[in-house]
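Supplementary material to the annual report.
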Amino acid sequence: MPEFNKVAVIGLGYIGLPTAAVIASRGMEVIGIDIDETVTRTVSSGSIHIEEPDLDGLVQKVVSTGALKVATAAEPADVFIIAVPTPIDKDKRPDLRSLNAAVDGLTGVLRPGNLVILESTSPIGTTEGIAKKIRDRRPDLTIGDGASGGISIAYCPERVLPGRILSELVNNDRCIGGVTPNCARRAQRFYKMFVRGACIATSARAAEMVKLTENAFRDTNIAFANELSLICERHDINVWEVIDLANRHPRVNVLRPGPGVGGHCIAVDPWFIVASAPDLCRLIKTSREINDAKIASTVERSIALIEEHPYADVACCGLAFKANVDDLRESPALEVVHQLSIKYGPRIKVVEPYIRKIPSQIGEHGAQLIDLDVAIRTCEIAIVLVDHDQFKMMPLAERRHLAVLDTRGIWQDMPVQSTVGGILAPISAAQT
Ligand code: SAJ
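Predicted assembly:
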C-alpha cells in the first residue's frame, strides 16, 4: 500500500493549482481546497483562473479523469500542502491571517500518520509555530515519524518562476525542512514522487531562511542595477551598454534595471527578514527602498518626456509586473501608469496584451486599453515599462518616429544621438 494516496492542497493560486495538477497527474488522488467559490467552480469545470503556459490543458485533463477534485473546506487526506498567500501589512510586517486560517481549517481533520507541509513563504519559526498549534489543539496526536502514527510537519518553499511553473515544479531542486529530522525525511519521500530535482533535507528554520534569502538576494542584485542606472543617467552614459560590457567579465553578472521590482515575492519577502532583525538589516532594507524609489523616478522621467510634447498621446507599454505574464500584483508598471493617468487622463493609451479590461484606477481617469499597432500608429510618445516579447518584436521601422522612454532596454536599436539612463531621446528629423 503506497504511503501517500490522497493529497489535499490548500490554496489554489499560482502555486497551489499547478502543484495540485502535477501531483494529480502522477496518479495520486488530489483534493484542491480554496475558500473562494469562484475559484473552485472554475477549477471543477476543468478551467483555470490564472494565466500560466500549459496549465489549462493539464488541469482540464486531471479534472476530467477525476484525479483532481475541489472543495471549499479541508477534508481528511494523507498529505496536506499549504500554499496560501502570506503578504505584508501596511507596516511591512508579515500578514499571516490566511495561513492561520488554513491551519485552523485542517487541524480538525488531521489523522495519525498525516504529513503537513507548508509551501508559502513564511517568517522564520512559522513551521514550528504550526507544530505547536497542532499539539495544543490535538493533544491526541504526536509529532514525529508517520510510521509510528505521528504527524510529520515540514517546510518546503516553492521556488517556481511564473511563466515556467510546470517545468520548474518538477525540475528545480527542493529544500525540505522538517521540525524533526524524521519529518524532513518523510516529506523528502513525498516530494521524490513528483520532483526530478534533488530533494535536500534540512531543518524547518533553515528552509524558511533559505527561501527568504533567495528572494532577498535577487532584490539586492536588482537594486544594484537600478542604482547603477541612476548613476549612469547622471553621467550621460548608456547603462545597458555598461552592463553588457561589464558582464563580459567572467565573474560579473549585473541584472537588469527597470521601473521598479514587482510581484508578490521579491517585492515582499525581504521585508520578512527586515521584520525579524530590524537592527541588522541595512543592505536588505536599503535595497527594498532603492527598488521602490525607482517607481517615482520613472514617473518623473515620464513626465519630463511628456511635457516636451504637450499635445501628443502617450503609449504606455505594459502593466504586468514582468514580461509575458498577466499578473499585475505589486506591479511597478501599474503604479507608474496609474500616476500618469491621474495627470494626463485620456492622453494615456495603455498597451497590455495579457489583459482584456483596463484596471479601474487607471480607466476612471479616461485612459484606454488599445492594441500595440494602434498605439504605435497614433501616439508620438512610448513609455516601455514591461519587456513583453510582443514589444521586443516590434520592428524599428514602425516605431522610429516615437519619442521613447525605455525603462527595460528593449529598443536599444533606435538611431539616437544620446541615451540617458534608459531614456532614448526623441529623434529630430535632422538626426534620422
Ligand atoms: N526584475 C528586474 N530586473 C531583473 C530581474 C527582475 O527589474 O534583472 C524585476 C521583474 O521585472 C519583476 C521582479 O523583478 O518586477 C521580480 O521578477 P523575477 O522574475 O525576478 O521573480 P518572480 O517574482 O517572478 O519570482 C521569484 C523567483 N525567485 C528568484 O528568482 C530568487 C522565483 O524562483 C520564486 O519562486 C518566486 O519569486 C516566489 O514565488 O518566491
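The pocket of SAJ is lined by residues 121, 158-162, 214-215, 218, 222, 255-256, 258, 261-263, 265-266, 321-322 (CB under 6 Å).
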